[in-house]
Specification:
This protein has ten helices and 13 strands. By secondary structure, it is of the alpha/beta class. The protein has a seven-stranded parallel β-sheet with strand order 3-2-1-4-5-6-11, with helices on both faces. A two-stranded parallel sheet has the order 7-10. The longest helix has 21 residues. It starts with a strand and ends with a helix. The relative contact order is 0.14.
């Protein structure tokens, strides 16, 4: 059993990772400031291997206390850093949100690791670090120029991590993934479309021209990849002992679906189909993107991740359809 600090563990992706780690027998220190509440981790509250911590992870003094708490229990073996502003549109209106919730959380966690000699970090990055490019994106794609504050703070976080890897002999794995969807989704195009149609099922506003096309990965496929690509770390006799740790100093993986992405119009069609509606008028706001800072089209090369034996279960369109069903079923349970 390893002691895992899961930063942002009450969020959409983090809560699914928490489920997986607890089910695998690890002890999880879940730190979050609960912007979206704590309902995602409700089932874990009474588990003796689950420690819930309310904290502002951009505050270095609060983060230091979390590592001190972990030290009482033998020390933190690894940090999974998912704490960030995940709403690009919201951050586009208020740049300070990304700076505080993404970049400053990274610095505070790295300082906590340095101070307490924690050597292993797994960081949730994003396709937004690449900016707008025509070619398929892989881990060696250069000239990274983010077009959003969100992407900029994620790329700055990656750079900061690289410096700590070098200066403090840490190990880091950076996961760059695109749009993640599935159970517990709290924002994004699927969430927005369903809410709009619940208010008015005769018409649907679609931002941009609807031709925006991106890959969408199902959250459980993503969790499977993260666990597989870090699992060998936990098979070490002593995870803190670097000579026994099979990870390289720093590794980057693009994680996404195989094949083509899904257009916004196709997502709208799937939502309409799954909600059992007909004769819904699509009203486009125009332009090639939904908002400033949005990357309307990109394609991922995931050959590096596939070479490890991991393979996503869902295609992009299958992930969209299943996520719509998840959202509809969740709403039905609440009524």
């Amino acid at each position: 059993m390893s002691n895992i600090l899961l930063a942002g563990g009450a969020g959409f992706i983090g809560s699914h990772l928490a489920d997986r780690f607890i089910d695998s027998g690890h002890k999880v220190f879940c730190a979050d400031k609960f912007i979206m509440g704590d309902g995602n981790i409700e089932r874990l509250r009474l588990n003796p291997n689950f420690v819930l911590i309310h904290a502002e992870l951009a505050d270095e003094s609060q983060v230091q206390k979390i590592f001190e708490l972990g030290a009482v229990d033998g020390g933190i073996d690894a940090v999974y850093h998912l704490a960030a502003n995940s709403d690009i549109q919201k951050g586009g209106k208020e740049p300070g949100i990304d700076f505080n919730d993404t970049l400053l959380t990274t610095r505070a966690l790295l300082e906590g690791m340095r101070t307490h000699n924690v050597k292993n970090l797994f960081f949730a990055s994003t396709s937004a670090v690449y900016g707008e490019k025509d070619e398929a994106l892989n881990e060696t794609t250069g000239d990274l120029r983010p077009v959003s504050y969100y992407g900029g703070c994620k790329l700055a976080s990656e750079a900061l991590i690289s410096s700590y890897v070098s200066m403090c002999d840490m190990n880091a794995v950076v996961f760059r993934f695109p749009n993640v969807i599935g159970p517990r989704l709290t924002h994004g195009v699927i969430y927005d479309f369903i809410r709009k149609l619940q208010k008015d099922n005769t018409q649907l506003e679609i931002l941009g021209n609807g031709k925006q096309c991106k890959p969408y990965i199902y959250v459980l496929d993503l969790v499977e990849a993260i666990v597989k690509l870090t699992d060998s770390f936990y098979n070490c006799e002593n995870p803190k002992d670097k000579k026994d740790n099979p990870l390289a100093h720093e590794e980057i993986y693009n994680l996404s679906i195989e094949g083509l992405g899904t257009t916004v119009t196709r997502i709208a069609e799937i939502v309409v189909e799954e909600m059992g509606l007909s004769n819904v008028a699509f009203n486009y706001t125009g332009g090639d993107r939904g908002w400033k800072g949005d990357v309307p089209k990109f394609e991922y090369d995931i050959s590096k991740a596939l070479s490890t034996g991991w393979k996503p279960k869902y295609s992009s369109e299958e992930a969209v359809r299943q996520s719509v069903r998840d959202a509809i079923n969740s709403a039905a349970k609440r009524t």
